[in-house]
């Protein structure tokens, strides 16, 4: 068996992956903050994590995957300041924070399903684990890692040795980064809130550097809980520690997110978890690079360049899987540039691949006795086990298709690879949408209509007009209208 190597941010090198318990893997991926739609940058990170999970499964591991839903405590400033993003979403849309969370969790799950991302085993909500978070803070308090300010309970990062072990930054650099969110009551700039009070003890107007606005004085929060320290809500970082410790138990193998999580969120998760338990918190830390927009700027929800799956792809008639294909063409640790042109070229690449698979299907390559080519499988394992090298894996797919293997063997081998790639090759059929140009796609349609459409396309290419007319009539009998346009046949369900 090929060994699996993953780049571990903790040690800044590729390392052989070894799980803590037998052939089982505990995988924790930081999930979305559900106050808005996910943008395609966020979705790039979830695609990378999906590839990781599929590679683990392909290697025969039994994976327990937890992805949390952040529905409280993530403030507009990642450390401790600003407004809770959920409460902000509630104000923006005139709904309750709970409604906002429910709506955007559903939207998120629809997006990831369109990208063929496997579902986690559990998707716990931070608001369902308040007690676990309070218990963890109590432990930290008992061990002397916490202190109180007028707006909450804070973790004293100076008390935790090797606070910078994930970021590898000098402490001064980390402090400098943290100074963006000034809070004069903190002992160290890197200290972060574990619990925040709904009503700060000092009125915001009396604070030296208050990020609060006048109206915050009167508005109590929608999401708040009783705690030993007063009514309030948990800080953002504590939820991932509490839920991963509770749900993965001893299987703290791999923890992932985007690179922006390294210096603050994951650094703080490690500090508070290891301080509380006295044990190592996750052995492997993997981080995906950003999706940038032209000029290398990071895509962010607060920007005007906030592209969702819906507005960047679906509305433009581009299949979401083309984005997945595009994401796989770039290694997950390299920045990816977004442009409409790049997406359209990914769509073309995927269309070509689907077409090849359909041709193999037409050659009856789907037979039951199909077998995967052993040599290509070894090559495939080598590239994906080398820190998830998906660009090389895609190149290998082309190599298989161009090889002199029999159609059956080609089909079986590429479909085997698709367990990792997730490009829908197993379910591809010709789709006829309400009103779209005839094209290769997944999702079912009437197989007979699809077959006739294909024949008609061929007849037209051969300028066999009588045959083309005859086929049109046949297709119409099945309940579709056919219009010939410059781009191809436009099919409508009547
Ligand atoms: P959030 O919903 O803001 O908590 O982010 C969800 C995930 O998306 C996190 O793992 C982030 O690190 C990641 N992320 C945020 N912006 C980008 C981006 N432009 N490209 C790739 N991943 C991102
Ligand atoms: Zn997290």
Helix/strand layout:
Elements: E1 5-8, E2 13-16, E3 24-29, H1 40-58, E4 62-67, H2 85-93, H3 97-114, H4 130-142, E5 146-149, E6 152-155, H5 171-178, E7 192-197, E8 232-234, H6 236-248, E9 254-258, H7 262-277, E10 284-288, E11 291-293, E12 297-298, H8 309-312, H9 320-328, E13 336-338, H10 340-362, H11 374-384, H12 390-402, H13 407-421, E14 428-431, E15 435-437, E16 439-442, H14 447-461, H15 465-477, E17 480-485, E18 488-493
Parallel strand pairs: 3-4, 3-9, 9-10, 11-13
Antiparallel strand pairs: 1-2, 5-6, 6-7, 7-8, 11-12, 14-16, 15-18, 17-18
Helix pairs in contact: 2-3, 4-6, 4-7, 6-7, 9-10, 11-12, 12-13, 14-15
Bound molecules: adenosine monophosphate (AMP) and zinc ion.
Zinc ion (ZN) is lined by residues 30, 240, 265.
Task: Produce a short descriptive summary.
The chain is α/β, with parallel strands linked by helices and 494 residues long. Helix content is 40%, strand content 16%.
Overview of the structural elements:
- By secondary structure, the chain is α/β, with parallel strands linked by helices.
- It has 3 domains: 5-288, Rossmann fold; 292-421, no CATH class; 429-493, no CATH class.
- It has 15 helices and 18 strands.
- The chain has helices at 40-58, 85-93, 97-114, 130-142, 171-178, 236-248, 262-277, 309-312, 320-328, 340-362, 374-384, 390-402, 407-421, 447-461, 465-477; strands spanning 5-8, 13-16, 24-29, 62-67, 146-149, 152-155, 192-197, 232-234, 254-258, 284-288, 291-293, 297-298, 336-338, 428-431, 435-437, 439-442, 480-485, 488-493.
- The strands form 6 sheets. Strands 4-3-9-10 form a 4-stranded parallel sheet, sandwiched between helices. Strands 5-6-7-8 form a 4-stranded antiparallel sheet. A 3-stranded mixed sheet has the order 12-11-13.
- A hairpin with a 2-residue loop joins β5 and β6.
- α11 (374-384) runs antiparallel to α12 (390-402), α12 packs antiparallel against α13 (407-421) and α14 runs antiparallel to α15 (465-477).
- It is elongated, with a radius of gyration of 26 Å.
- Residues 206-212, 214-218, 431-438 and 440-444 have low confidence and may be disordered.
- Adenosine monophosphate binds next to α1 and β9.
- The site of adenosine monophosphate has 16 residues, from α1 and β9.
- Pfam families: CysS_C, tRNA-synt_1e.
- GO terms for molecular function: ATP binding; cysteine-tRNA ligase activity; zinc ion binding.
- One of its GO terms (biological process) is cysteinyl-tRNA aminoacylation.
